Amino acid sequence: MLKDKIKNILSRSDYFIPKLMFLFITFSLVHFGLGYATKPIYTVGIVAFLVSINRLNFLYYLFVIIFSVIAAVYLPASIMYGQPSFNIASSILYTDQNEAKEFISTIPYYYFLVSILIISLSFYSLKFKFNVSKKLRIKYLVVFLIILMHSPIKDKHSNDYIDISNSGYPEIKFFKDFYLSIKESNNEQSKVISLISKKDDFNSVKVNNKYNTYVIVIGESARRDYMNFYGFPINNTPFMNSINGIFFNNYTSASGSTQLSLTNTLAIRDNLSNNVISLAKKAGFHTVWLSNQGSIGLYDTPVASIGKRSDYSLFMKKGNSDDKNKADDNILLPFIKSAIKSNKENKLIVIHLFGSHPPACARTNDNYDYFYENKEISCYIQSIKDTDNLLETIHEYLIESQSKWTMIYFSDHGLSIIDENNKNKLRLIHNDKYRQNFEVPFFITSYDSKEKIHINAKRSAFSFMTLFSEWTGINDDIINKTCNMISNEKCDNQNKIINFNNEIINYFDLPMQKNI
Fold first, then answer.
1. Which of 127, 405, 485, 502 is at 20 to 30 A from 340, Cα to Cα?
2. pLDDT for 327-338, tens place per residue?
3. 304 pLDDT band (50/70/90 cuts)?
């Protein structure tokens, strides 16, 4: 039988070179699955190591099994996001069960085929027998050690010591990067808990508000270039198109994921206690937070922690295993209407949507008005229209309230296209590699808006607290007032963004992604 013939070949002491080539291919795929570019030198080193320990069956089996399984499991994240990072670690901490299921549902089947290939090749490599001399095994081990020590020795002059974890082997880098990412994310979580429990620093609050009802609607995952208002060919923003107000054409989010973005938007960086809710409450405003996202796990997300400082907060998703996926943002409408109708003299209402969070067809129940490219992209376009419809309903509630109202809408971040060369498979995911990951809509409208005003000057979410202060008329000495944000005045420091390693970089250092 063919199976017996293969087994016989794999167990024979000859076919030495083919077996080496087989291992080389297998661990090239393993390295790819771990999130690192395949570099032949490190694959050669691992193959040499495996030959040297082949007679130690348990150690050989353990090494092959551990890394092939990890690579097969991690491969989808590897393809989409690369090596372990702060954002991936934070996603593990802050993603609930439903969002995890949705993430898995967005993974193309052929990614899993590669995972199965890795497992299959590794399974066959377990049967290899390398009957080489002790002298040759030692030579192979020396090759492995030389490659292992190359980077640590080279880095010694800057570290003053040899650190094996600085080796270029993906098997070592993966655990190091994953450990450091988890550690940084846990440290950030601890910092959040510490900061959010601190008293804010607003001690010189002055109020000169023009309106008495302030509404902030925070969208999710909406790229502005997929909106008709910003030039997209399908009319999925009829409400935005029809209203008067102030429209920002070059506003960028703080980051490419929700938690990193909004914690650096709604609060002064590195001090989450100094946030929009705390400032509004200090000014005597009644504050309401309504969210179709949630607080997750043992601890609240940083954004949820800000929201829970409100006088009244409601989270439609609790993040536990029994929670159902309430994807439809319209579920918030009765609570929004009630908050707007309340007789509080001055109020701030923050509404956090689930918006266009991937997979888009889960947001729209697989429905869409217009077909564009493929089903998933059509759903994404529809999800933006659904948000536009919701904004129109909120606008109607505000008009009915007969109050002096004003409303801001912006999205937390954009998305990027993957598999753009295959129309049937292309879709949008969270990312930090392109400018479009940060290019989001932003507008202000109010009961007394008489015309459309366009602000073309560059504006960054890092300056949102300044913009919020201008908009609400709430001022404090710790808020930067060096530039008028709601104007076309050129302002400094408007190009900062945060990548998925939690590093501040320049927006203009990123490339533009080719549109589909």
1. 485
2. 689 999 999 999
3. confident
Global pTM reads 0.77
Q: Which residues of 147-182 are buried (b: 16+ CB within 10 A; e: fewer)?
A: bbebbbeeeeeeeeeeeeebbbbbbbbbeebbebbb
Other Cβ atoms closer than 10 A to 52: 22
Please choose, from the candidates 128, 266, 258, 253, the residue with its C-alpha nearest in 3D space to the C-alpha of residue 196. 266
Predicted local distance difference test score (pLDDT) of residue 322: 35
Strand partners, 51: none
pLDDT, tens only, 419-429: 877 787 788 98
Return d(Cα 61, Cα 206) in angstroms, integer. Answer: 69
Q: How far apart are CA 278 and CA 283, in angstroms?
A: 9
> 96-100, 194-198, 412-416, 455-459: lowest mean pLDDT where?
96-100
CA–CA gap between residue 142 and residue 459 (Å, rounded)? 56
How much of the chain exceeds pLDDT 90, in percent?
59
Predicted pLDDT of residue 300: 55
CB atoms within 10 A of CB 66: 12
* Number of helical H runs and strand E runs in the chain: 18, 18
Length of the chain as a residue count: 516
pLDDT at 46 (0 to 100): 93
Span 223-231, mean pLDDT? 96
Residue 444: beta bridge partners? 246, 408
- Tell me the longest C-alpha to C-alpha distance in the chain: 90
322 Cβ contact list (under 8 Å, min separation 6)? none
| Backbone CA torsion sign across 222, 226, 230, 235 | negative
Report how far residue 75's alpha carbon sits from residue 115's, in angstroms, rounded to the nearest whole number.
7
Which of 320, 289, 292, 317 has its CA nearest to residue 305?
289
Q: Average pLDDT over the chain, rounded to whole?
A: 87
Helix (H, G, I), strand (E, B), or coil: what is residue 20?
helix
- The SS3 call for residue 425 is coil
Tokens of 27: 């661990």
Neighbours of 143 (CB within 10 A): 17
Q: Give the per-residue SS3 of 104-157.
A: HHHCCHHHHHHHHHHHHHHHHHCCCCCCCCHHHHHHHHHHHHHHHHHHHHHCHH
- Mean pLDDT along residues 467-481: 94
**Angle (CA) 122 126 128, round 5°:** 115
Q: Are the C-beta atoms of residues 486 and 455 closer than 8 Å to each other?
A: yes
CA distance 116 to 103: 19
CB 31 within 8 A of CB 43: yes
